[in-house]
């Protein structure tokens, strides 16, 4: 089973009108069989220096546990305005989460990085489970995570 | 009411509570295991700076350092892009071994928290905890009730069956712990569902100002030098390439951040009271960091399966015992009221027969236990009271509250009544309680419908005659026809007998029986269930024997346990005794029809206190059984009276054996027909006053078995002996320390 999550149409339009040139990007995150409850996962963008830019997706229902996605929590300040409409169910061990959304062209090949934080109840938190640059070259390249992420890739 | 609530709650949530209890009991072992593997002693003398300084060499890729409540230190690191975790020694920082959480433990924890069903499961768990709490509270109230108030809460508990006694005794021990588990569990559930404000909200914000300079060696950070290892909960390292990142730390007091360059503590915030309350409750519930509490709670949780099983048995027995009454009208609307006083439910059969007869004659009948006497019966025109008598003229179980309640009833005119007593003419106070009730009604000035009648040994003829008389009074023909059902009997075969006392006109025999040989060859099913095994009984229980030609059983105290493989009784031959004569004439190999009736009130207590056994003649029966099965060499003292040592010294050789192997501590005999020092057993007690007083002061239990006259004599003597130490038989009886089996 995969979690295929599409950004709501209205928001997609807003995003594409904001940036003249936008692109549909699909992020695929496969989790290891770490043997625990469903994982909370944060996908977000930072600049080259690692400073938080924008939230892409938060998997996990209860916002009170979001602080365990510590890299993201620190950057975003956990403000709900940062992730409104960008949340979904937590991801069970061994499953794959696929998220598709529109991103401005200007964010690609401009030194931005995609970061993934993961957390599981009663298990360790993984800040920066995955860190990959968002580049045209990186399309379909599979990266292994340090924590619960088995593999991560994106395509556009 | 409370009892009803208790059983409804218990039965409805049996599975919910059982799963919680068993999984909780298994989880409760963890804190002890963790504690035994952790090094805790002396860790307050080393600082986090010292420890992390050493760790920096061993684990260059360290990301997190954690100290569990039990004191286990865990490092989390990433090596070649693979996350790892090790347990380490706090003094040397050496690796003890890899840290893993077994999948079973995770599974069990989830089972305990949510029945593996996530949110719906968590709600069910909260319900389970609530039910557990309510069961404990209602159980406590019932215990207080049955022991007669708070102050007597720890008195010995009496119960008519093993299941009942186990249920109350184990329950009493486990109550507090079970309530604690349920209450703390419920608190945590309420927090999960945010009925109680979440404790995790109060955290310091990430510091705005970070030095950003060259990171200093961790061992040199000032803030860490001030924190002993024993105070640490978690230290999260900054991300290696990020100069503006910080260490975040949680200690026993609070949480904050440490600048990786200056080593200063930034934005530290102590835990607020919300957090502290939660942590305290969490600790009480899980026993994390408090291993002995965890074991105690786990042990108590293990009683839940036992409590469930015994509880269901008690409930089932009670339910089965409640007689089914068809067309029972409400007390408010009935024109005829039947109240029943019964000890072991046999009187109910008669009452229901009367109920049905009146009912089919067109009356609106309300039948209930005497304890259920209502404040008023607005439509009632007649009241029937059918009651047995318990012991020496006392109220039977279902009538204990009756006389007290009657005082409160304020029917100025009163209802015409008829009392019918049930009993056995052999006993001195035949229908004594029925007569007491009659007196009370008379004093209240209620009119008698019919003079009080007494039924001897469940005679159906007398009952039918009484029905005719009632019918004439109320102007309706009543046909009462009831004979009590016989209990299911087994056939026993006499294997051997020892006869005593012929010479002193007190023929007494010890008779031993086994299950009669089955004529048919045994099938596999029979051999599987071993049908030739004796039914279960213990010394002190009663065997009901049906003599040929009489439907009424006679009861004898048992001198053996069923596990002794033999059913033994000691029977004195009475001149006119139908059953005792039948038994005395029984030859080896001949058979009797018999059934077991439990008599749990007459048994030695299971504590380590001394036991004084007192009897005369054949009354030694159950007592010899207690001594014979005294495997734990409990101090037991026997006082026994006979007539002449050469003739009726029952069990003389056996008693000598028990004295030699310490199953019996002391033996005192009195003989009434010897030339010198003759006397009764009560005289022997008086002679031994000092010793008995000392034993009673040492919390001895006293068990008396024998004839009524002897029992009165013993009781008088004991009162005389105990008066100087301000005790008497009545107060010992109330404490359950003086028990009688009298015939």
Describe the model:
The complex is a heterodimer of chains A (156) and B (743). Chain A has a single domain, classed as Sandwich (Immunoglobulin-like). Chain A is built from three helices and nine strands, in the order E-H-E-E-E-H-H-E-E-E-E-E. Chain A has helices at 9-18, 70-76, 80-83; strands at residues 2-6, 22-31, 40-46, 52-59, 87-88, 96-104, 113-119, 125-133, 149-155. Chain A is globular and about 40 Å long. The relative contact order of chain A is 0.27. The model of chain A is unreliable at 1-19 (pLDDT under 50). Chain B folds into five domains: 2-32 and 105-199 and 282-316, no CATH class; 40-90 and 203-270, no CATH class; 336-474, 3-Layer(aba) Sandwich (Rossmann fold), CATH 3.40.50; 490-597, Beta Barrel (Elongation Factor Tu (Ef-tu), domain 3); 611-742, Rossmann fold (3-Layer(aba) Sandwich), CATH 3.40.50.80. Chain B is an alpha/beta fold. In chain B, helix 3 runs antiparallel to helix 10, helix 6 (118-147) crosses helix 7 (162-192) and helix 7 runs antiparallel to helix 9 (273-286). In chain B, the strands form four sheets. In chain B, strands 4-3-2-1-5-6-7-8 form an eight-stranded antiparallel sheet. Chain B has a six-stranded antiparallel sheet with strand order 17-16-19-14-15-18. A five-stranded parallel sheet of chain B has the order 10-9-11-12-13, sandwiched between helices. Helices cover 39% and strands 20% of the residues of chain B. Chains A and B meet through helix 2 and strand 8 of A and strand 3 and helix 5 of B.
Secondary structure layout:
The complex is a heterodimer of chains A (156) and B (743).
Chain A: E1 2-6, H1 9-18, E2 22-31, E3 40-46, E4 52-59, H2 70-76, H3 80-83, E5 87-88, E6 96-104, E7 113-119, E8 125-133, E9 149-155
Parallel strand pairs in A: 1-6, 4-5
Antiparallel strand pairs in A: 2-6, 2-9, 3-4, 3-7, 7-8
Chain B: H1 2-12, H2 14-27, H3 30-37, H4 48-58, E1 62-67, E2 73-79, E3 82-88, E4 95-98, H5 103-114, H6 118-147, H7 162-192, H8 222-225, E5 232-236, E6 246-251, E7 254-259, E8 265-270, H9 273-286, H10 291-321, E9 336-341, H11 346-360, E10 365-369, E11 382-388, H12 402-408, E12 417-423, H13 432-444, E13 448-456, H14 460-474, E14 490-500, E15 508-515, H15 524-529, E16 542-546, E17 554-557, E18 567-572, H16 578-584, E19 591-597, E20 611-616, H17 620-628, E21 636-642, H18 645-648, H19 652-660, E22 666-671, H20 681-687, H21 689-697, E23 701-706, H22 708-722, H23 729-734, E24 738-742
Parallel strand pairs in B: 9-10, 9-11, 11-12, 12-13, 20-21, 20-23, 21-22, 23-24
Antiparallel strand pairs in B: 1-2, 1-5, 2-3, 3-4, 5-6, 6-7, 7-8, 14-15, 14-19, 15-18, 16-17, 16-19
Helix pairs in contact in B: 1-6, 2-5, 2-10, 3-10, 5-6, 6-7, 7-9, 7-10, 20-22
């Amino acid at each position: 089973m995969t979690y295929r999550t599409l950004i709501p149409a209205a928001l997609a339009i807003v995003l594409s009108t904001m940036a003249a040139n936008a692109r549909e990007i699909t992020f695929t995150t496969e989790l290891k069989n770490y043997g625990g409850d469903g994982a909370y996962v944060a996908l977000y963008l930072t600049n080259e220096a690692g400073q938080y830019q924008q939230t892409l997706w938060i998997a996990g229902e209860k916002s009170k546990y979001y602080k365990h996605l510590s890299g993201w929590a620190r950057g975003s300040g956990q403000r709900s305005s940062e992730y409104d409409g960008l949340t979904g169910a937590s991801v069970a061990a061994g499953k794959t989460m696929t998220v598709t959304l529109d991103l401005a062209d200007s964010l690609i090949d401009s030194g931005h990085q995609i970061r993934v934080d993961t957390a599981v109840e009663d298990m360790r938190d993984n800040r920066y489970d995955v860190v990959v640059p968002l580049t045209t070259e990186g399309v379909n390249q599979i990266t292994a995570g340090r924590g619960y992420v088995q593999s991560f890739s994106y395509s556009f | 009411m409370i009892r009803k609530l208790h059983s409804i709650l218990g039965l409805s949530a049996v599975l919910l509570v059982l799963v919680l209890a068993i999984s909780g009991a298994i989880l409760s072992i963890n804190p002890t295991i963790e504690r035994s593997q952790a090094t805790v002693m002396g860790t307050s003398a080393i600082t986090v700076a010292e420890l992390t300084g050493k760790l920096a060499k061993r684990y260059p890729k360290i990301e997190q350092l954690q100290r569990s409540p039990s004191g286990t230190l865990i490092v989390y690191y990433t090596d070649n892009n693979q996350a790892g975790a090790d347990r380490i020694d706090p003094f040397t920082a050496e690796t003890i071994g890899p840290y893993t959480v077994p999948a079973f433990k995770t599974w069990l924890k989830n089972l305990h928290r949510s029945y593996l069903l996530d949110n719906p499961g968590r709600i069910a768990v909260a319900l389970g905890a609530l039910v557990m709490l309510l069961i404990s509270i209602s159980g406590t109230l019932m215990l207080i009730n049955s022991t007669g108030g708070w102050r007597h809460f720890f008195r010995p508990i009496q119960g008519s069956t093993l299941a009942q006694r186990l249920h109350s005794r184990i329950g009493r021990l486990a109550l507090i712990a079970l309530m604690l588990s349920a209450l703390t569990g419920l608190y945590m559930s309420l927090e999960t569902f945010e009925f109680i404000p979440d404790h995790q909200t109060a955290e310091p914000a990430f510091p705005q100002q970070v030095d950003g300079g060259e990171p200093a060696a961790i061992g040199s950070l000032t803030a860490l030098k001030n924190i002993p290892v024993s105070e640490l909960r978690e230290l999260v390292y900054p991300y290696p390439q990020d100069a503006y990142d910080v260490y975040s730390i949680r200690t026993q007091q609070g949480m904050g951040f440490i600048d990786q360059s200056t080593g200063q503590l930034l934005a530290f915030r102590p835990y607020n009271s919300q957090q502290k309350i939660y942590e305290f409750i969490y600790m009480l519930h899980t026993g994390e960091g408090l291993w002995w509490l965890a074991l105690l709670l786990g042990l108590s949780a293990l009683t839940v399966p036992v409590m469930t099983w015994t509880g269901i048995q008690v409930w089932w027995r009670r339910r089965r015992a409640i007689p089914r009454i068809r067309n029972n009208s409400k007390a408010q609307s009935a024109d005829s009221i039947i109240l029943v006083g019964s000890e072991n439910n046999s009187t109910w059969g008669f009452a229901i027969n009367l109920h049905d007869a009146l009912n089919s004659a067109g009356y609106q009948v309300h039948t209930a236990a005497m304890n259920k006497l209502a404040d008023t019966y607005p439509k009632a025109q007649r009241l029937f009271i059918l009651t047995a008598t318990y012991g020496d003229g006392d109220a039977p179980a279902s009538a204990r509250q009756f006389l007290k309640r009657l005082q409160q009833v304020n029917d100025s005119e009163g209802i015409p009544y008829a009392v019918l007593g049930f009993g056995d003419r052999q006993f001195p106070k035949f229908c004594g309680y029925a007569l007491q009730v009659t007196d009370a009604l008379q004093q209240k000035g209620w009119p008698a419908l019919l003079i009080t009648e007494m039924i001897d040994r469940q005679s159906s003829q007398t009952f039918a005659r009484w029905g005719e008389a009632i019918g004439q009074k109320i102007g309706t023909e009543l046909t009462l026809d009831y004979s009590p059902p016989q209990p299911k009997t087994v056939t026993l075969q006499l294997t051997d007998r020892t006869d005593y006392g012929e010479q002193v006109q007190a023929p007494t025999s010890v008779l031993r029986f086994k299950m009669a040989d089955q004529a048919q060859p045994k099938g596999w099913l029979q051999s599987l269930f071993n049908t030739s095994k004796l039914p279960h009984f213990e010394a002190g229980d009663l065997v009901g024997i049906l003599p040929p030609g009489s439907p009424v059983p006679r009861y004898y105290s048992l001198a053996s346990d069923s596990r002794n493989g033999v059913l033994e009784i000691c029977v004195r031959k009475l001149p006119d005794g139908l059953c005792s004569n039948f038994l005395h004439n029984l030859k080896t190999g001949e058979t009797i029809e018999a059934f077991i009736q439990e008599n749990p009130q007459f048994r030695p207590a299971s504590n380590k206190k001394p036991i004084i056994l007192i009897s005369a003649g054949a009354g030694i029966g159950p007592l010899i059984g207690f001594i014979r099965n005294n495997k734990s060499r409990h101090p037991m003292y026997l006082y026994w009276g006979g007539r002449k040592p050469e003739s009726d010294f029952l069990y003389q050789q056996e008693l000598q054996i028990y004295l030699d192997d310490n199953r019996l501590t002391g033996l005192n005999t009195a003989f009434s027909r010897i030339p010198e020092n003759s006397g009764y057993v009560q005289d022997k007690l008086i002679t031994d006053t000092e010793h008995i007083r000392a034993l009673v002061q040492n919390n001895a239990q006293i068990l008396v078995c024998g004839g009524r006259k002897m029992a009165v004599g013993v009781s008088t003597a004991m009162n005389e002996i105990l008066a100087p130490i301000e005790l008497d038989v009545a107060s010992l009886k109330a404490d359950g320390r003086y028990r009688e089996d009298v015939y």
